[in-house]
Amino acid sequence: MRTRGFGLVEIVVSVAVLLVIFLSAYSVIISSLAYQADGANRVRAELLLEEGHEAMRLVRDTDWTLLSSLSVGQDYWLRFENGTWSSIASEEPLVFGMYDRTVRTDDLYRDGSGNVTESGTVPDQNIKKVTVSVRWENPRGEQSVTRSTYVAKIH
């Protein structure tokens, strides 16, 4: 009779150990799927970031004044219509339903010798600093990627 009771305890302990193992494995799988989704979202955001820079170079190639006339330090949204890119001041719908992409221009300053400076009184009229930002939400909160480059007047 004692062996039966002992067998029941072994079964309960075995089930508990297996349950802990399965729950741990389930948690690892769910976490890895979440990180994989985060990685895919980051890759899409990086591609949208690059597309934003390419769009601003196309705007520059079309007409420099379209780029140089943008207000410094103000966020703009990109719109692709009728085969051309444009920068608009009103917020656009999210790209792919989850990404908010903005573009900002800043002046590049030069000192009296023509050297580039962080700030100054003489902005270079032929170069703009273009910053593209992409933001999105995930279960861990807001994520973002930002990259800046310089765009020069070439025509």
User: In what order do the strands lie side by side in the largest sheet?
Assistant: 4-3-5-6
Compute the number of helices: 2
Distance between the first and last residues' Cα: 97 Å
Q: Structurally, how many domains make up the residues?
A: 1
Beta-strand content estimate? 25-35%
What is the arithmetic mean of pLDDT? 88
Query: What is the CA-atom radius of gyration, in angstroms?
Result: 27 Å
Overall helicity: 40-55%
Shape field = elongated
Order of helices and strands: HHEEEEEE
Give the strand tally.
6
Low-pLDDT runs of 5+ residues are none
Q: Describe the biggest sheet?
A: 4 strands, antiparallel
Strand pairing plus helix content: what structural class? alpha+beta
Strand-helix topology:
Blueprint: H1 2-62, H2 64-68, E1 77-81, E2 84-88, E3 100-110, E4 116-117, E5 122-138, E6 141-152
